[in-house]
Amino acid sequence: MEIWVNPACSKCRSAVSLLDEAGVDYTVRRYLEEPPTAAELAEVLDRLGLEPWDIARLTEPVSQELGLKTWVREPVSRAEWIEALVANPELIQRPIITADDGTTVVARTPEAVRSVLP
Asked: Which residues are tagged catalytic?
């Protein structure tokens, strides 16, 4: 199991605490320090069943600088969105957990975290 976290994020700290309480083995990826590649992010999005605009943090200052709210949200723009998120990982919603069986969730709630526990 892997969890993408920003240690400054309370939702991330809560998710890590729930994983610890459950006693599961997991790897922490500080995705701001070790951003995903475009291929990794595309794979995570496929597992989530979401598009990059679905996990973009549109209130971040860099989002406003890029004008993300006005970007086209169609399959033709998917690669451009992915590249923007990879180049600016603070735009990626967090935490994201990928379980050993491949199940992946944006774990912003305790229920979402529990949904990937064995």
From this structure: 9
